[in-house]
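DM from R.C. (forwarded with permission)

"hey, sorry to bug you on a friday — could you get me a structure for this? deadline for the figure draft is monday and I only need the backbone to look sensible"
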Amino acid sequence: MIMKNTIKYIIVAVIAAFTASSCEKFLDRPSEDSYNESNFYQDENQCIQGVNYLYNSPWYDFIRGFYRVGECFSGNYYMGNSPYLQFTVNGSDKELRDMSSSLWAVNSHSSVVYNRIKKSDIDPAVKNMCMGEALTWKAFANFFLVRSFGEVPIIHDISAELATGTYNEVYKATKENVYDYTIMLLKEAMNLLPKKVANKDGRIDFYSAEALLAKVYLQKAGVSGTLNQADLDEAAKYAKDVIENSGRELLENYSDIFRLQNNKNIECLISWHWDASAQPWTAQNSFQSDLGMNGFDEFGDVWGQWNGPSVALQEQFGVSALMDPATRSDVDTRRKATMMLAGDKYDYFWTTNGGFDYLRFFYDDNYGPSGTTNASDKSMNSPTGAACVKFLYGDGNDHMAALGVSAGRMAYGLSTHILRLADIYLVYCEAKLKGPGSSTTDQLALDCYNAVRNRAIPGAVSAKTSITFEEVFKERNLELALEGDRWYDYVRVGYYNPDFAVADIQAQKRNAILGSLNDVYKAYYENGVWSVPESVYYNTEEFTPSADAIKSKLAALPFPSEDVVYNPNLGAEAKEFDLSTITF
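My reply, with the result:
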């Protein structure tokens, strides 16, 4: 975190800015052989290049925590005996340590880059743009920190902390302080960033920061224990401006959002843009390795077949792995773009091999990625019968066709979209509501909700004339499932109505399907007959998290143990932080 590793972060921030390279023009570095602080950030190109790595490298160690916290805690993703599934995670957990370290790395790196560029003598417009991007990334890191760990220190200027030598003595600030600080960062970023109507270049702009600001205000609204109308109004105001003036639009086809060729698309407001060339190593995307099935690509780097989208998430979409694919009611296009089930085929994976067939993948030994054969044992091992789709890019040929460069072992260039326009549509809807049990007829909220639903089920949804909180809360999950965000919906509601969050989580089917679902799938593939014996059923007895365990994690995840050792103040009461001391 900030204690033990702060000096490392500040050094790495400078080195990474000078040495990282990329296959995409967006991430290109200058061609000079070597740089140091005295000869870098000397022109517009160097300043832009110096910001680019904030879009990937320092976030890399957050990948696994991002998924475990966002989706496993929330009940969307099944990971066996994972402490994130069972609400037993503690400060010794490796993924939690990596998550914390990564978020503090982003915080530190962003400060270093901001300060270096602030001193540069370049065109003011470019200088402001780069500084605004750095502040937005710093804000996003703080937003993840406060939603995950609750009360955390506010570290505004890492260089100043190092100079005083007190970085291992800082106290936690209150949650309200951290939210207010994050808001300050984003408002300053908005003062610096350009307004790019219909921005398609993948870079953060004014509307990106404004969209994040709307989401921060919505999250902050209940932090005192009751909903604050002023915060809801601010969330609605900023979301409305993004919706009406940013030029962003929903893509017509939901699944297109997550394809390689759409890494920079008109719907996505903030994304991690990864570098398949893996220079440095942490610049690349490796989600597919953890979430895909063994043999899904030809690099021998995929091992996610023992986990899968939960039975609870399947039920949210109105489907089940135990349903006959031929008669399964499956009208929401987001389901297939989110998770694979028996009978699913995908024309955008394995494109040179005629597309990807979920069942054939397991039961045809001559069917492999990039047109090759793969006769290794590929039995259907998912304990829920489903497999992840989001965050998968396909095989090597898919990657080459879309990006013009080869993927590698745990190295691919599929962008990870962490703030989308559809999210802001639903932020506006929720900001016009008063929590569980409320409803609204606000016209823009209805338009936003209906737009999200109509894309998901084209032509099959009647326009709503009133929407409830519960409808919006569910819609957020259907729209954003497996995108690392769902747990934070529960955290937000848990601030002011923890009983609602607890009841929703305890009602989920978070366990596995028992018996040999693989035999059911294989028989269906081979003879077209769907038959589920009594020995194959959902496990109703394994585990239901307690209310106390849920409320504890909603309030705050534990700090990594080593951080508390280095700074015992992390175990003390939070102190009010004087935000009037913050300057830019």
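R.C.: lifesaver. The longest strand covers residues 268-272.
me: no worries. The first helix runs from residue 6 to 19.
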